[in-house]
Amino acid sequence: MTVDPNQPNSQNGAPAIRIVDLCRHYQMGEALIRAVDGVSLQIQPGEFVALLGSSGSGKSSLLNLIAGLDRPTSGAVIVEGRDLAHLSREALSRHRLRTVGMVFQSFNLVSRMTLAENVDLPLRFAEVDRGRRQALTRQALERVGLGTRMTHRPSELSGGEQQRAALARALINQPKLLLADEPTGNLDSHTGTEIMNFIREFNQSLGMTIVMVTHERTLAERYARRMILLADGKLVDDQPNPMPAAAGQQEGRR
Amino acid sequence: MKTYDLSELALRNLRESSLRNSLTTVGISVGVASLVAMLSLGIGLQKLATRHLAKSGLFDTVVVTSRRELRGFSRDDEQRSTASAAESRALDEPARQEIERLPDVLEAYPDIRFITELSYQDKPHLTMVSGIPDSARSNDAFAGIPGRFFSSETAPEVILQKSFALELLGKTPPPGQEDEIPVNDLAKPLLGQELIMRYAQRVAASPSSADNAPAKAGLAPPAQTESDAAYSVVSREQRLKIVGISDLDPDSMRGAARARVFLPLKLAQDLRVMQPSDVRDSMRGFNKQPSYSTISVRVKNPKQVEAVEQAIKKLGFNTFSILDATRSLRQFFAVLDLFLGIFGSLALAVASIGIVNTLVMAILERRREIGIMKAIGASDGDVKKLFFAEAGAMGLLGGVVGVALGWTIGHIINLGTNIYLKRQSLPPESFWAVPWWLVGAAIVFAFIVSLVSGLYPAARAARLDPVQALRYE
């Protein structure tokens, strides 16, 4: 399949993410690990997709490839019209900075920095003016309910609060895609719900495309509108989930 | 990333592991301090040497002699010289004035030197007497001597060289131990005392002087046949008051070499003492005007010595200056500075390894942080620049602290040495100089060394694979 990586995604209806026969193989000593093995799929703008699978199924590897943190062994991963396989390291870092936002299971806040500094960091890399940065940072932290904790360090906060700060950081550069790798994996069910409600809100009110990796089928069923199941690096199931929202909202108000 | 944000972030990171980073910075400081200390010592010693030599007048002085003096007495030479008369002029008063009018010439004065007899308490002493220009007032040899400099250019006063003062007092220390006697001890009995100088005055041969002279004369030479070349020599006496004693080594000063008694130059000129060159001139028969054997020319700045020498040579005289000697002196100090600089740099080289170590450690420790930064959009360049900035900040801070440290160490050493010198009753010296360019250069050097040290760690941090870095918990 021929893909023009320079063709921007201007047409309405063009997929936000198009993955074509994507492979990512690692050499681990003697063994060849096929973390992602010939996956093809398309995700439309505004979709909320859950990548399901047991550990080692390749879901995180796939997410890393979409995030531009890793490069495929073969195949194409086209995000917003650009084939990440052919981007330079510099262009890949711009992709991570502007096109995607990431949240992780272990929050991945810089422990030596305050919340405000953590959220501010992508703005620094994007060379945003100092004055504007402060306003944006405050706004982003207030949105996730952490307006009063700006000068706190991550270690002074609960897991839920840390993940909310991570969400604020992921959104600060207004990316089109939010990639979440087990965002509730380290949280109790109550705070997990809190985080998921935020993510759903971003999906619904901002129209962000969400790709969430999880191994909890119930969580995926509650929030995602499409569930993709991976096993041994291969796509084994891809089905829509027509009624996620109602359950989620009930859960949120409890 | 913007430069300001970058440096802010770098400084912030440095503050985080402050103990390790400050130890590294101290390492750089010590390196810079040793470099500054070494080079300041070299520069200071050079300045000290140059200052002493400049004060002695060796650097800014051109000695002018007539080309005639180099010729023999043979008639052949004399005839040949008429062809090139313009370039073998007599070194007389008009010539002196002409030289003095040359650009960059401060003054040109004749060297007047003669051997004569001085009586102190009716005991005669034979010695070399030299005329000293008023400009020698600030000279190393006369500044700060017991007593004072001449009150005027024609005052009937003398300054004695130490060895002559010893002779007058009848003290003869064993050879080599003359330095042990403080000049002040000699000054007490001699200052204010009078000497009587007997000398041969050269008088133009006019009928009247010829008649008057013989009263005291005794050694009037046979009159010359050509009337314009004729003069007679009359014995005179001059009372002179001792006003100062100089510690000056008789060999070390321009013009006055080997003289042990110094007169004001103008007085010496006015006395019109018979000089050895007079005899030579009279034998050659062209002494319409009394000529000088040598003229000392003081130049405004040692840098202009060469140009002035050329100008004087064009006028038709021979010149000599110590410029060549200073050239080798400068060479010596350049080599000395180089060696001191290399030794000083060694400590900085060790410190730079400290920077590499600190930053490599920081990469290991901040592996996850680097991974996070890359995941949220930092480019390789951003990470590289951040580590670079941290190295540079340590270098800059270390450089500034190091210069201050080196400056302080130098002053303490200088102070200590001066206390020692004072105990040895020697005058204090400043052999320590930290010029501004050294301050700037040392800081810039520390900065550059740090950046170079940061090259490898920064490249390593930039290459870090974010997936790998984030995988480790």
What does this structure look like?
The complex is a heterodimer of chains A (254) and B (473). Chain A is of the alpha/beta class. Chain A has one domain: P-loop containing nucleotide triphosphate hydrolases (Rossmann fold, 3-Layer(aba) Sandwich). A six-stranded mixed sheet of chain A has the order 6-7-8-3-9-10, sandwiched between helices. A four-stranded antiparallel sheet of chain A has the order 2-1-4-5, covered by helices on one side. In chain A, helix 3 packs across helix 4, helix 4 packs across helix 5 and helix 5 runs parallel beside helix 6. Chain A is globular. The N and C termini of chain A lie far apart (49 Å). Chain B has two domains: 195 residues, no CATH class; 263 residues, no CATH class. Helix content of chain B is 52%, strand content 16%. The interface between A and B is medium-sized, with 32 and 26 residues.
